Amino acid sequence: MSADYQPKPEHKFTFGLWTVGSSGADQFATTFPVRGPKTPAELVRLLGEVGAYGVNFHDNDLIPLDATPAEAEQIKKDFRAALKETGLVVPMATTNLFSAQIFKDGAFTSNDPKVRAYSIQKAMRGMDLGAEFGAKIYVFWGGREGTETDATKNPLDGLKRFREALNFLCEYNNSQGYGYKFALEAKPNEPRGDIYLPTTGSMLAFIETLDHPEMVGVNPEFAHEHMAGLNFMHAVAQAWDAGKLFHIDLNDQNYARFDQDWRFGQQNWKQAFFLVKFLEDVGYTGSRHFDAHAFRTEDYEGVKDFARGCMRTYLIFKEKARQFNEDKEIQALLAEITPASGEMEKFEGKFTAEKAAALKAFSFDRNAIAARGLKYEKLDQLLTDLMMGIR
Ligand code: GCO
Ligand code: MN
Ligand code: MN
Fold first, then answer.
1. Ligand 1 site: residues with CB under 6 angstroms?
2. CB crowding 258-297: b at 16 or more within 10 Å, else e
3. Checking DSSP bridges between strand 146-147 and strand 194-195, what pairing results, if any?
4. Ligand 1: which atom is nearest the Cα of residue 249?
5. pTM of the model
6. How far apart are the CA of 367 and the centre of ligand 3, in A?
7. What tens-digit pLDDT sequence spans the chain (391 residues)?
8. CA distances from 233 to 1, 122, 195, 274, 311 (A)
9. Is position 291 annotated in a ligand binding site?
10. Could you say which of 4, 11, 61, 194 is catalytic?
């Protein structure tokens, strides 16, 4: 099979308006934009040109916070026309609950009841807007839900407030018949000193405490798990195992650094490869959403290079995963590494009293078992050769 690495709609590659629309301003005191603004309709055309499938937005990526109703209508009209022209769809929408000053101490978890109520109002309006464009996934990233000092807030109050807000919004979803699935996105820190529910694993446990757990899943992000020093693919696998992988944010990020939001596969090839292989092997059918930014050295041609690069790298790893799965030597090694149950079969599976008694009485040759070399070095080098293109 020859791979052309061209993005197609069935690959479900999506970008946020905020990603290709990023001005390149960074988070330091010297911050300044390096790219002029583009309208949402212009960004849709840019994404159409590079071959994306869909575009996602925060309420205020589309409609600025202080837009008049007439301005909002015009923006929506232009955006809708660009979608029609390019064939792009809007699979996901979300609320900006972090940029405006009112969110300086959080949104749903703020200590101020007015801020909490305003946040729920804004999320309902954001859901209305997303539904107008056909979004079926609604993301909640609690960017400012946290603290710099725990003198200010009890984390139990934070959890209670976050839960109440989501329960309210699940009921709103039902009352409007929107049919959204909610996807909770964890991040350990930045912009807060500590953000509540810092990892995908924390979110998965929290979801089970909601009134409508079936409506709520996760949106794991590569960079966020790496910021926490974790293995992203393992977090994604746990979400998948729980039936909760509703969305995914792909980018790249070195460990132990500030939030970098790099082009997918820019740095950590191996982690990116294992992630793509996982998604393709299990048959994940959701969006492959790139939540990343072009380097601030780029003009808009560079932004297109960035967007094309995210998709191309994904497709290269997809092809490498196929090669890995079909490579005879690799597969033979894998078979050797994972022997059939053999005489252990009688001990496997569900507990019975007889099985437990037989297992307790069985005599293992511990040293002989431990002496077996597992050939993981060989396997991993075969993978390296394959990824480097010499296999
Ligand atoms: C970040 C987050 C955001 C969210 C976005 C959608 O680190 O800033 O990843 O980009 O994904 O707000 O919820
Ligand atoms: Mn992020
Ligand atoms: Mn994200």
1. 58, 94, 139, 141, 143, 185, 187, 221, 249, 259, 291
2. ebbbbbbbbbbbebbbbbbbbbbeeeeebbbbbbbbbebe
3. antiparallel
4. 11
5. 0.97
6. 48
7. 447 999 999 999 999 999 999 999 876 656 788 999 999 999 999 999 999 999 999 999 999 999 999 999 999 999 999 999 999 999 999 999 999 999 999 999 999 999 999 999 999 999 999 999 999 999 999 999 999 999 999 999 999 999 999 999 999 999 999 999 999 999 999 999 999 999 999 999 999 999 999 999 999 999 999 999 999 999 999 999 999 999 999 999 999 899 999 999 999 999 999 999 999 999 999 999 999 999 999 999 999 999 999 999 999 999 999 999 999 999 999 999 999 999 999 999 999 999 999 999 999 999 999 999 999 999 999 999 999 999 9
8. 27, 33, 21, 7, 18
9. yes
10. 61
From the list 191, 325, 183, the residue with the least C-alpha distance to 243 is 183
Instruction: Spell out the domains of the chain, with CATH numbers in brackets.
Output: 9-321 (3.20.20.150), 328-387 (no CATH)
SS3 assignment for the chain: CCCCCCCCHHHCEEEEHHHHCCCCCCCCCCCCCCCCCCCHHHHHHHHHHHCCCEEEEEHHHHCCCCCCHHHHHHHHHHHHHHHHHHCCECCEEECCCCCCHHHECECCCCCCHHHHHHHHHHHHHHHHHHHHCCCCEEEEECCCCEECCCCCCCHHHHHHHHHHHHHHHHHHHHHHCCCCEEEEECCCCCCCCEECCCCHHHHHHHHCCCCCHHHEEECCEHHHHHHCCCCHHHHHHHHHHCCCECCCEECECCCCCCCCCECCCCCCHHHHHHHHHHHHHHCCCCCEEECCCCCCCCCHHHHHHHHHHHHHHHHHHHHHHHHHHHCHHHHHHHHHHCCCCHHHHHHCCCCCHHHHHHHHHCCCCHHHHHHCCCCHHHHHHHHHHHHCCCC
Cα–Cα distance for residue pair 81/160, rounded to 1 Å: 42
Ligand 3 centroid–CA 7 distance in Å is 21
Residue with tokens 């480097």: 388
241 alpha carbon – ligand 1 mean position (Å): 24
**Whether 247 is catalytic:** no
